[in-house]
Design a protein that fits this description.
Layout lengths: L11 H9 L7 H17 L7 E5 L5 H6 L5 E6 L2 H14 L4 E5 L12 E7 L8 H11 E12 L19 H10 L2 E15 L5 E13 L5
Parallel strand pairs: 1-2, 1-4, 2-3, 4-5
Antiparallel strand pairs: 5-7, 6-7
Length: 222
């Protein structure tokens, strides 16, 4: 599910996600979170069965499976082959004809194979080092009039991942909206969509709120 900046088989973090791929969907909290994000996207964006979409950092495709009946086609993009293998197995088992996996590191290399009417991600952006770069890539991959939906953490004290994590400690959705507008997006809107209750290193269970931010790509932009 989490989309790292490079695919490195020696990276212990990537190996950790690969090892968890087979049981990723068995965590009820992850299922509940995906359901909350999907429900928010359905409520905040006027989806149609003519729209094509891409889930960035799709992992096993939990959110995409919840949205597949509302869209024409969804590309599940991730740079974990193991996660995408699980997603492929789920696609075959379900008989879904409008889901496909795409192995690609968008944080490292641009993607030129398609453009989309919707790009969405869940708990991925805080792992991306260069946020401006990925936002720019999202913008270029959207068709005019398309939508971007980002679900991620509100600002937190670093205890969500703990020591050694070099990503972002959440985002202020107001500040993120400004960054999106600088990249050419408009009509930003956000709301709280879920709360993760997670045991931290203290050790205590702490609540971490997630926002869902939606932005549009202007109709008259090439």
């Amino acid at each position: 599910m989490f989309y790292l900046d490079t695919l490195n088989k020696e990276d212990p973090v990537m190996n950790e996600f690969d090892r968890k791929a087979a049981v990723w969907d068995q965590d009820p909290a992850r299922v509940e979170r995906a359901e909350a994000v999907a429900a928010g996207i359905i409520e905040m964006i006027p989806l149609t069965r003519t729209m094509t979409a891409m889930e960035f950092g799709a992992g096993t495709g939990m959110t995409s499976f919840l949205l597949k009946d509302h869209l024409a086609e969804i590309s599940l993009m991730d740079n974990s082959r193991v996660m995408l293998k699980v997603a492929d197995e789920k696609i075959r088992a379900s008989g879904s004809s409008n889901l496909r996996t795409v192995f690609h590191d968008l944080a490292g290399t641009h993607y030129n194979e398609a453009r989309f009417d919707l790009i969405f991600s869940q708990m991925v952006l805080h792992h991306i080092t260069d946020v401006e770069d990925i936002i720019s890539k999202f913008h270029s991959l959207l068709n005019p009039g398309g939508y971007l939906a980002i679900a991620d953490l509100y600002p937190e004290d670093g205890s969500f991942h703990g020591e050694g994590f070099d990503g972002h400690k959440g985002f202020d959705p107001e500040e993120l909206s400004v960054r999106l507008k600088r990249a050419g997006f408009e009509n930003t809107n956000y709301r709280k969509c879920y709360t993760i209750n997670k045991k931290t290193s203290e050790p205590v269970v702490k609540p971490f709120d997630l926002f869902l931010l939606v932005a549009g790509r202007q109709e008259n932009q090439p």
